[in-house]
Structure formats: structure tokens, C-alpha cells
């Protein structure tokens, strides 16, 4: 088999589905409040991944997975900290045309099991996209036939953990560091686009400017239909004659509970959320101290837009109850396939994030 992707809605033939540590990975943690929360996340995530794999296989997809040592334990990690699990293979990998592009660099490369498994699948067409900046995020690229859409937002923004306030790099680094990081990011992006244009000279490269990963902002469901979280771009100009469905928020019980918790507790939101553990401060402190690279900032994400299209008539969704999107699906003869993904507010990744299209027919 080889890589073959020209858009996001041709029939999905082969896909990578991520994986995470099993609950026994956390057995050696002594604090029961921390251990029980992490083991619950692990067990329920494994259940949801197994279900997702069955959905994909029943559709006819070949599913490949990163491989983890089930005998490994959290106490065995070295001085560099606890590595992110290989759960979101789309973070630093992107398939376009007949090539696999790897966008991570140095310590920002994904878990090695992702690349190892992809090289087992096909090692002949791998392109390393940059050696300068870790901020060239693969989820900011969207392929649509002869068009590549690239979110080239130069303001990589962060959150103050105590206040939840949005910070720019300038607030975190001094001016010299900020300008250096920004310069390396721009150079890496330019180098990547030059390499892509060399490989695919007839490709139209379209640059967007919006905050957040593109796959958490909009999804092309088929030729002529897009769902988006806000009017993040000029759709009349960029996608003329497309029907655009704008979603204001996730219509989920989790989202309503999260908002209620913020108001009633009168405290800043942590970067993640685990229902039932809102007052488990030992767990929250452990995650923010040792697992900071595992989580994002969930308030920025609308996971109802982060869907995996199987073909023009079947789309995997993590929320079956979004009436706005469901009406749009019906209008375009699309069947939503519900795939439970309970801990998206912890992992800060939806169904699209935890998969990687390898081949579409």
C-alpha cells in the first residue's frame, strides 16, 4: 500500500488511529486521587478507541495503530519527563498526494511509535518539513483536490494558567527570544511551502489567518459543503458556491456542565477538564506539573467541527445531538456515525485529531 490523499472526502481506505497508555501504566502512582483519575481516563479512552476501530473496520477501512509496550510504567520515564502518548498522529504528520510529510522537529517530534508504524506502512515517500521551528503544526494544512489551505497565523498564543488570560509570545519571552522564535517559525513555514511546491508544481497554495488549528475551525465534508465554528475566513472568496454551516458552540452536556462549573466555582479554568474531578486538586496539579504536554486549552476548541469524513455520505461525529449540524447533514445527504469520545476535554483532540488519513480511493 502507498499514501494517496487528494482531498478529505474521497472514500477512506487506510487510516492510522492513535493509542494511549493502558491503565496499568499508572499503577505505581501512590496518591489514589491522582491514580484513580488517570486510570479512569486510560480505561475509558481505550474503550472508545476500540469502538472507533470497529466502526472504521466495519466501514471497510484498513486500520493501523502505533504500538506501545504494555509492560511499561510511568516510573520508568527518564529526566525529560513523561512523553505524550501516540494518541494524535495528525499533530505532526500530514499526507498529501503520495507523500507523508513530518512537520515536528527535535523534542517536538511525536511519540516515536507513530513514525515507526508509518515507516512500516511505507517508508519510500517521507518528507521532513523543517529543522528550525517546532511550531509548524500539521493540523493547519487542509488539502482539497488541487488546493492546499494553510493557516499561517504568526501569533502563536498561550494562556496564563492562573487567570486564563490569553498571552502572546511577547508576554512569555523577552523581545529577543520572541522575535527569534517568530523568525524561525516563518522561515520553517516558507521552506515547507517551497518543498511542497517543488513536489506538486500545479498545486494552488492558499494562506489563511486564524487562531487555532484549521481542523478545529472548519471541515470540508464534500465538494460544496463546509462546517465551521465561526466565520474564520472569507468563504465567499475562498470557497465560492459552497454551502457553509456555522456552529457557535458544542451542543453537549459536557460543554454546559463546564460552563456551569466555571460560573459557580468562580475560578479560572484549568487547561483541561475531567467531569467529576473538578475538586480533585491533587490530580489537577499533577497534570499541570507533569503532563502539561498532554493537554491543550479546551475552551478554544469546538469538537463538533473536528469530524472524520469516511466518504461523501458518511461522517464520524463525537456528538450526535448538535441540531444545527444534523440539519446540515440531512440537507446534504450525509449520515452521521456517532463515535463516543468521552475525554476530548482532557486530551484536547477530537476524532479528526486522533486519526491520520493515509489512503483514500
Task: Explain this structure.
This protein is of the alpha/beta class and 361 residues long. The protein has a single domain (12-360), classed as L-arginine/glycine Amidinotransferase, Chain A (5-stranded Propeller). 30% of the residues lie in helices and 19% in strands. It contains 9 helices and 17 strands. The chain has a 3-stranded mixed beta sheet with strand order 2-1-17, sandwiched between helices. The protein has a 3-stranded mixed beta sheet with strand order 3-4-5, with no helix packed on it. The chain has a 3-stranded mixed beta sheet with strand order 6-7-10, with no helix packed on it. Strand 15, helix 8 and strand 16 (335-338) form a beta-alpha-beta unit. Helix 1 packs across helix 7. Residues 263-268 have low confidence and may be disordered.
Radius of gyration (Å): 20 Å
Give the tally of β-strands: 17
Distance between the termini: 12 Å
Order of helices and strands: EHEEEHEEEEEHHEEEHEHHEEHEHE
Derived from helix and strand composition plus strand pairing, the structural class reads alpha/beta
Strand content: 15-25%
CATH class: Alpha Beta
The share of residues in helices is 25-40%
CATH topology value: L-arginine/glycine Amidinotransferase, Chain A
- CATH homology superfamily: L-arginine/glycine Amidinotransferase, Chain A
Largest sheet, spatial ordering of strands: 2-1-17
Morphology: globular
Alpha plus pi helix count = 9
